Amino acid sequence: MKDATATLQGGLKASEREGTPISAKFEIEDGKLQLSVYTMKDGGFTEVVADPKTGAVKEAEKIKGADDLKAATSQKAATAKAKCPCSLLPRTLSRPIPDRGRSASIRSCRTTVQWPR
What we know:
Elements: H1 8-15, E1 20-29, E2 32-41, E3 44-50, E4 57-62, H2 66-81, E5 104-108, E6 111-115
Antiparallel strand pairs: 1-2, 2-3, 3-4, 5-6
């Protein structure tokens, strides 16, 4: 994770060409770190995979698997229920996740969340 210089915010921004971002996370896939963003567009879902170092989109694939579709549908529902009318983008950290012992704030819609909790 220490080699990741891309931010969730950058991944969300880059993924917008595939639809509206509904979730983003850093994950290990096939032993490699990647930035994964789920987007929605025209009733369908796409997983956008971005390079964790640059934030550039590496690939985008329609979500078809049952488990992934269930997760995307759940994330869409959670996004729809959000009381904040702004997009997902401003609610993310604007820099890489800090090292242990440091903290960062996420500000949006007059709400501050302190990280780590």
